[in-house]
Amino acid sequence: MTIKDTPEEWEIRGTQTPFVGKKTSMRTDEVVMPGGAVVHRDYQVHPGSVAVLALDDADRVVVLRQYRHPVRQKLWEIPAGLLDVPGESPLHAARRELYEEAHVKAEDWRVLADVYTTPGGCDEAVRIFLARGLSEAEGDRFAVEDEEADMELARVPVDELVRGVLAGDLHNNCLVVGVLSLVAARSGDGLDALRPAEAPWPARPFEA
Q1: Tens digit of pLDDT for each residue in 184-206?
Q2: Which of 18, 122, 144, 147 has a 20 to 30 Å separation from 64 between CA atoms?
Q3: What is the pTM of this model?
């Protein structure tokens, strides 16, 4: 058996979009089940996202603390953002988010992991990058607003983040997946064996 996710699409008899928001929408599909029954499946339609695990020479990760209203918590996260520019390269978006949220640039970029955040209720796909060779970005800092105006920045050792994840103290999915993927890659074939930054991404096709 090959352990690999594969594309598949069951028949859809009808679809409705009862809500359209600024960046996402809700959709209801009438999906034909294997036994022939037709059921309704509600889910959020999402443009996709990128996230950046930025690792400095002292083995610290650039993290930020931000209020997330749906869960009523301030979460420690890695820089991330929406793929809301049609056709934009995920790598270009990741570079932008690292600059805007941390005012940092990186020389070496790799793909750590590609994930669906909540595939039972949302079609959001996230590409998590590893960025190394960090330095301060040139130019003015990005003007922040709303939740980002209250954002805190820090650099935290990888080992401390791993302990926080396993202790149940850190919950952001991109941080959790990114940090544990980093540790797994190190114990496997090494970070230089990770996929290149422009590797194909079938979940969100793009032009390199």
Answers
A1: 999 999 999 999 999 999 998 88
A2: 122
A3: 0.93
